[in-house]
Amino acid sequence: MSVGIDIIEISRIKNAIESRGKRFLKRVYSDKEIAYCSKKVNPYPSYAVRFAAKEAYIKAMGGLYGLQVRDIEVSNLESGRPFLIIKGKADTTLQLSLSHCHAYAVAIVAPGGRL
């Protein structure tokens, strides 16, 4: 395991959702992530930062190793701190940092987390 980082243009995710709709959402995001993001006035930054987190996790781990992208889920503590859930189990061995602005979303996954 190493550090993984990913950055994505929010417009890429917006275009994918608008062109492929639910098929894209169901392939990439968990039901909980879809419910969380769809409550937002502008859901695209939230979807994009979660996509970046999944990509950063894959890079940190060196591959998917039998997982589907939607098996990697971003959730939040009550404090708002994000963490990863892998196949339904919280991964407390990782640190996750997320950020986005009007055009980009970025995520970093690193070893050494504690919830």
In words, what does this structure look like?
The strands form 2 sheets. The protein has a 3-stranded antiparallel sheet. It is globular and about 35 Å long. The longest helix has 19 residues, at 10-28. The protein has 3 helices and 6 strands; from the N terminus they run βαααβββββ. It has 115 residues and is an alpha+beta fold. α1 packs across α3 (44-61). The two termini are 19 Å apart. The chain has helices at 10-28, 31-38, 44-61; strands at residues 4-9, 72-76, 82-86, 89-90, 94-100, 104-111. The chain has one domain (4-111): 4'-phosphopantetheinyl transferase domain (Ribosomal Protein L22, Chain A), CATH 3.90.470.
Helices, strands, pairings?
Elements: E1 4-9, H1 10-28, H2 31-38, H3 44-61, E2 72-76, E3 82-86, E4 89-90, E5 94-100, E6 104-111
Antiparallel strand pairs: 1-6, 2-3, 3-4, 5-6
Helix pairs in contact: 1-3
